């Protein structure tokens, strides 16, 4: 476990009394409030100095309400230093007004408009969506990529069209850990890392494995590969609570990464757990 306080770049919290999350109906284990007080408890011995909140797929009409609520929560726990909300980027140039409204809140550091759940495999290449992503540079916003590994080909095409936007790949692009599938994910991640405006989160991998029986050896080929591709200047930690709680307790995920990163220098570890995240999200 790190001997210093870390930055968690992937915190989810939700309040079912305030907002509607349709997807939770299909995930009974998560279908209840998950609030900041519980997060403090589940961290256990892990010292978390700062957190970045990631949008939680509330009803799309409530995306501004979600950002406003988390801003309120940050007054109760000022360790929340950044917010990455949803935004209607598919509106293209017309999304500028929505982004300007979000940018009025200094807590907002980037946008996540999930691609994974779109039925159209060409969704992220629609001209208006590409324009919406390109607009993020005007506001200094980053973009969190959330996809399934099968969507990597088109995602690479999207990123290449947006050289002025800083991207981070959430959850290692969700490879098929459960079935130990490495290719073509391996080469596609290498291609992504070859683009200088990309980073990768060490997050969410356990929920792509066997929830009950995963081991470090199941995860290691994927984590080792992103370390090799992105190096220690473009990787950072994400807890993915409470989604990851389906497969791991929070301290176990941190301990797992510690074991995988054993042999790294103190400076490299501090980059992964603190400095890279602070720089990317400006927190």
Number of helices: 9
Structural class: alpha/beta
User: CATH superfamily assignment?
Assistant: Metal-dependent hydrolases
Main β-sheet, in a few words? Answer: 5 strands, parallel
Radius of gyration: 18 Å
* Residues in helix, %: 25-40%
CATH class: Alpha Beta
What series of H and E elements makes up the topology? EHEHEHEHEHEHEHEHH
How much β-strand is present in the residues? 5-15%
Number of domains: 1
The CATH architecture assignment turns out to be Alpha-Beta Barrel
Instruction: Give the CA-based shape.
Output: globular
Unreliable segments (pLDDT under 50, ≥5 consecutive)?
Answer: none
Alpha-carbon distance between the termini?
22 Å
Q: Average the pLDDT over all residues and give the rounded result.
A: 97
CATH fold node name? TIM Barrel
Write out the strand line-up for the largest beta sheet, numbering strands in chain order.
4-5-6-7-8
**Number of DSSP strand runs:** 8
């Amino acid at each position: 476990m790190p001997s210093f306080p870390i930055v968690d770049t992937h915190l989810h919290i939700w309040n079912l009394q305030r907002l509607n999350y349709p997807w939770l109906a299909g995930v009974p284990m998560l279908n209840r409030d998950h609030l900041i007080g519980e997060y403090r408890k589940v961290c256990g011995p892990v010292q978390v100095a700062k957190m970045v909140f990631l949008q939680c797929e509330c009803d799309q009409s409530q995306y501004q309400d979600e950002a406003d609520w988390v801003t309120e929560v940050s007054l109760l726990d000022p360790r929340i230093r950044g917010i990455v909300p949803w935004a209607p980027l598919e509106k293209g140039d017309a999304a500028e007004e929505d982004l300007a409204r979000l940018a009025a809140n200094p807590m907002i550091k980037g946008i996540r408009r999930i691609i994974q759940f779109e039925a159209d495999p060409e969704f992220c290449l629609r001209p208006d969506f590409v324009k919406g992503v390109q607009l993020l540079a005007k506001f200094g916003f980053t973009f969190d990529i959330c996809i399934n590994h099968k969507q990597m080909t088109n995602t690479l095409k999207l990123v290449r069209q947006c050289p002025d936007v800083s991207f981070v790949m959430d959850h290692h692009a969700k490879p098929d850990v459960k079935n130990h599938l490495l290719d073509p994910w391996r080469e596609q991640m290498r291609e992504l890392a070859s683009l200088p405006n990309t980073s990768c989160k060490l997050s969410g991998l356990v929920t792509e494995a066997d929830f009950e029986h995963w081991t470090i050896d199941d995860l290691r080929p994927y984590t080792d590969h992103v370390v090799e591709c992105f190096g220690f200047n473009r990787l950072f930690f994400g807890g993915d609570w409470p989604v990851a709680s389906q497969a791991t307790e929070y301290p176990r995920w941190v301990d797992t990464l510690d074991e995988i990163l054993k042999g790294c220098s103190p400076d490299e570890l501090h980059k992964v757990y603190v400095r890279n995240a602070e720089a990317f999200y400006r927190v």
